[in-house]
């Protein structure tokens, strides 16, 4: 069973919430990723900013986007995965939340990032039963019954 720790990138930069978008974009270029975590000084996750968020703001706002900070574009509640969780659980999180990037947490602190590309490149053996277990939707999201009583 492959764990997140075996596939993740451990040395991703942690951005501050107040960093300029230009700095965030440069950090993504340097780390060759399309998303980075925003963290407090202790390494606790505050949110996630993506290259897509930055590009969209730049296209929409033009030069006004230069006045924005990463916190203005971040997802304040991104899905996460634990350092010792299985790849199946990570894949389920990515599918449920429609994301390709997961901050990896060791306790409360960000210790890396896992991407769908990393999973795809490594092609770990996947336990389908475990994957299905993690993808089960809560009852409120389950399809309505086709039979009705009158």
From TrEMBL:
Pfam families: CBS (PF00571). The keyword Transit peptide does not apply. Signal peptide: none annotated. Residues 8-67, 74-130 form the CBS domain. The keyword GTP-binding does not apply. Keywords: CBS domain. This is CBS domain-containing protein. It comes from Nesterenkonia halotolerans.
């Amino acid at each position: 069973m492959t764990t997140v720790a075996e596939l993740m990138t451990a040395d991703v930069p942690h951005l501050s919430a107040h960093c300029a978008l230009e700095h965030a974009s440069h950090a993504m270029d340097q780390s060759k990723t399309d998303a980075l975590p925003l963290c407090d000084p202790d390494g606790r996750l505050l949110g996630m900013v993506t290259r897509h968020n930055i590009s969209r703001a730049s296209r929409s706002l033009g030069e006004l986007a230069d006045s924005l900070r990463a916190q203005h574009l971040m997802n304040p509640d991104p899905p996460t995965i634990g350092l010792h969780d299985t790849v199946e659980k990570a894949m389920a999180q990515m599918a449920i939340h429609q994301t390709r990037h997961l901050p990896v947490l060791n306790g409360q602190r960000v210790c890396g990032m896992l991407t769908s590309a990393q999973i795809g490149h490594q092609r770990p053996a996947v336990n389908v039963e475990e994957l299905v277990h993690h993808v089960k939707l809560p009852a409120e999201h389950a399809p309505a019954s086709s039979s009705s009583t009158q």
